[in-house]
């Protein structure tokens, strides 16, 4: 799960009915009305709704005032604006007006859930202390802005958000963790036999493929299936246009893995629902697939990486690389650039090893940068796959563009990791417990929504 936003966020999302407020005046004098057929409840129409209904008052389903009062707590339009800014700042893609409207509705749902979590923690006398929120905020500042919280304050304001908005999000996450720790986790049990069976299956699967996947899960029922599917398709479209998978997973996914940007960790196909396993089997690192319908909803998958069970992970290899690059002068024509790239490619092919690089690069005016302690996993997936298949002294094909220059990498050394051992008993138990906590957490949040009094303005 590239992280552009600062904090983890656990938000579960489902559709929320809009309350209709307003007085309806009825005429006192009787008027003739056509007879109506009373609908009878059936399996396909459990509410017995007539085919033609008359709405009283003005209603436009595409225009909603994005404010709400949740058990007396007011969520304002400004709250939504600031939280939307955190999402859009993490996306390189332009967001259409239609997508922005959908995003604002979703963020309102997130803020309602966040408020319910904070209120539930307070009711259980498990309020998050201000000192805890400040400590987490300082940690995030250290991770992103070199221990200078003022820089993070300035950044948040510059994108249209605020420190208060992010701190409210931190409070909601911590409140939810407190509730799960007391109301869910003590009642989740995994036996030693289950763990040992899992370890046995893992050892039997040694050498088979396993996948590190990101997932965005959206729950759906037969009633809202079409709407949820449309929402998932819109998310996929935004991701394909450059949106941050991590940011979208944190805002939209209903799984507890939303807290880590949807990262499922390393899984084998047998651990996945058949529909997801079939999709993952055909994916390459960096590829996106979905929405995929599974029992209970839809999933969007992103393949972060792939390796073999209990075998050395090639992505853990430590590489010694030399980067050779050329730049183009201002005003260069396409023909001139292509000729220079061709010459540069011939030069790279002529190199007989790493010892030739510096001298050869000086002759053609190329720049050389050496990095002898870089892990393969930090390289872009497409480039990583190419480099891991190189022999010592070989180079990648040229890549880049006129604006930023063209370059090649030469592999000058590689230290492969040792074979990975089986995960520990404790690690497997933690994974099994997390799966069960995830399911119960979704039910817990659904109960909080059902018991809440929410008024939309």
From TrEMBL:
Q: What PROSITE patterns does the record tag this protein with?
A: PPIC_PPIASE_2 (PS50198)
Question: What are the boundaries of the signal sequence?
Answer: 1-19
Determine the domain of life of the protein's source: Bacteria
Q: Recite the UniProt keywords alphabetically.
A: Isomerase, Rotamase, Signal
Gene3D superfamilies registered for this protein in UniProt? 3.10.50.40, Porin chaperone SurA, peptide-binding domain
Q: Which Pfam families match?
A: Rotamase, SurA_N_3
Domain (PpiC) spans 208-305
Q: Which SUPFAM superfamilies match?
A: FKBP-like (SSF54534), Triger factor/SurA peptide-binding domain-like (SSF109998)
For this UniProt entry, the molecular function terms from Gene Ontology, in alphabetical order, are: peptidyl-prolyl cis-trans isomerase activity
PANTHER family on file: CHAPERONE SURA
Write down what this protein is called.
Parvulin-like PPIase
Q: Which organism is it from?
A: Erythrobacter ramosus
Specify the taxonomic lineage: Bacteria, Pseudomonadati, Pseudomonadota, Alphaproteobacteria, Sphingomonadales
